[in-house]
Amino acid sequence: MENIKAYVQEHKDRFINELIELLKIPSVSADPAFSKDIINTADAVKASLEKAGCDFVEICDTPGNPIVYGEKIIDPSLPTVLVYGHYDVQPADPIELWTSPPFEPVIKKTEIHPEGAIFARGSCDDKGQMYMHVKALEYMIQSNTLPCNVKFMIEGEEEIGSKSLSWFVERNQEKLKNDVILISDTGMISNQQPSITTGLRGLSYVEVEVTGPNRDLHSGLYGGAVANPINVLAKMIASLHDENNHITIPGFYDNVEELSLDERAEMAKAPFNLENYKKALDLNDVYGEKGYVTNERNSIRPTLDVNGIWGGYTGEGAKTVIASKAFAKISMRLVPNQDWEQITELFTKHFTSIAPAGVTVLVKPHHGGQGYVTPIDSIGYKAANMAYTETFGVPAIPVRSGGSIPIVALFEKELKSKTILMGFGLDSDAIHSPNEHFGIFNYLKGIETIPLFYKYFVELSK
Ligand code: BES
Ligand code: MN
Ligand code: MN
User: Fold this and answer.
1) Using CA positions, which residue lies closest to atom 19 of ligand 1?
2) Residues with CB under 6 A from ligand 1
3) Would you kindly state where each structural domain of the chain is located, as residue ranges?
4) How far does residue 429's CA lie from ligand 2's centre (Å)?
5) Quick one: pLDDT at residue 19?
6) Helix, strand and coil in the chain, % to nearest 5
7) Distance, CA 197 to ligand 2 centroid (Å)?
8) How far apart are CA 93 and CA 433, in angstroms?
9) pLDDT tens by residue, 20-67
């Protein structure tokens, strides 16, 4: 596979330009205003798979956004790798904080990416990482080194909960049959230290609505005499954590797996510098659950966070008003063994029970998913580690991530296969934030590393 390096060098400008074209389409799944762009992106992904050399590609209609499916079956008796990725992206706002428009990709140098990074919404999450797989396939087909069968399943609803993908997977078990699922939609420790994500957190996402009086009121005439829904909501939310930053919902921790001290000591070996972490975020200190360090708080521990809160008057100047309603969107990140539906129920029961007289509370569940952990002794993990070792010169470190890809647990349940998370993004790439970017180094290194995964996976499967 010496040739992959040469192939990437020879074609890198084209690889970058092709990705840039894909990034120009604003495939925002959260906002129906972009539904035409969703369709156009699915078409572009389909065309790219055909060009790379798949011998069958189709757009699969679903109750929601289409799924692009492609395959190259060279011999049914050989193993099959199923590549999953998503072509939808997060909304770009707040747009005014972008230093260049989110859907006009440009390459800029940064301290962490001295050779340049592509700035655009979706560059890292996940169009750039997904497209590495398309280019790796192109290489393997061009060089006649594809050692097994490959299937691609690229969806357009990951950022809004993958509802249609669940529908699709349940109905297409035979078509999606595989020996391992390969995903690049996570990160790694640094460009010098690759890592393989061995865990993802689950998620329960809810919206709450607190209603007081039947209309907005004059805050002088009524203030002090009726419950103010915003005051009440703030107090209710504050009560969801105690002084040690433990979550106070009864039963919330019942199924949380406690890691042994040995496992925690193992985790602590991964390189991490607290001062740099604080500096990167302009924080004067970190924060979180007592008894755990930063890298535990954001991976092996469950959390509860308000993602948005609104109500009352937020326009120019001052308006004296007691709002009729207050709202918040709340996410709970869960660890493996916590069941997201049960947690949603526990939250709903608790949150309604702490509502004081004078208001009514409504909890609307949004979406969720189970967490995931995978062992490091599987063939897939070993193959990924061998691939990284070869291209980075050092072995990968297993890391449990704090993010969620809820469909991964469903893959294991429905398709009975393990997922290997070979991520090439960095935490500093600002996914979901303004100025999202993906390093050119990371993009090209991904394209180089992926064919080696196939090679070693097939070797180890023999
Ligand atoms: N690619 C991310 C998840 C991720 C990023 C995992 C980095 C690990 C490291 C994915 O697109 C994502 O954003 N997932 C959502 C969940 C989804 C249900 C909206 C998340 O984690 O908030
Ligand atoms: Mn993603
Ligand atoms: Mn995302």
Assistant:
1) 159
2) 125-126, 158-159, 161, 185-187, 200, 203, 401, 403-406
3) 2-200+371-461, 202-256+302-369
4) 12
5) 98
6) 35, 20, 40
7) 13
8) 8
9) 999 999 999 999 999 999 999 999 999 999 999 999 999 999 999 999
Q: Under CATH, what is the fold of the domain 2-200+371-461?
A: Aminopeptidase (3.40.630)
Which of 126, 158, 303 gets mutated to test ligand 1 (max ligand atoms within 8 A of its CB)?
158
Beta bridge partners of 40: none
| Total length of the chain | 462
H-state helical runs in 268-311? 274-281, 294-297
Predicted pLDDT at 2: 63
- Tokens 């596979």: give the residue: 1
pLDDT digits (tens, 9 = 90+) for 433-462: 999 999 999 999 999 999 999 999 999 999
- Number of helices (H) and strands (E), helices first, in the chain? 12, 18
Burial of 406 (0-12, 13-18, 19+ CB in 10 A): buried
Residue for token pair 């995903």: 183
- Nearest atom (ligand 1) to Cα of 185: 1
DSSP annotation of 259: P
Whose structure tokens read 């105690």? 242
For the chain, the average pLDDT equals 97
Cα distances (angstroms) measured from residue 304 to each of 114, 198, 403, 462: 36, 22, 13, 45
Q: What is the distance between the alpha carbons of residues 411 and 153, in angstroms, rounded to a whole number?
A: 12
Write the residue with the smallest CA distance to atom 10 of ligand 1.
405
Q: What is the Rg, in whole angstroms, of the alpha carbon atoms belonging to the chain? A: 23
**pTM tops 0.90:** yes
Matching fold, domains 2-200+371-461 and 202-256+302-369: no
Residue 293 backbone phi and psi in degrees, to 5: -90, 170
**pLDDT greater than 80 at residue 1:** no
Q: Which region holds residue 187: left if phi is over 0, alpha if psi is between -120 and 50, else beta?
A: beta
Match 């957190």 to its residue by tokens: 201
- Provide the CATH topology of domain 202-256+302-369: Alpha-Beta Plaits (3.30.70)
* Backbone angle region of 248, left / alpha / beta, with phi > 0 → left and psi within -120 to 50 → alpha: alpha
CB count in 10 Å sphere of residue 278: 14
248-262 pLDDT, tens digit each: 999 999 999 999 999
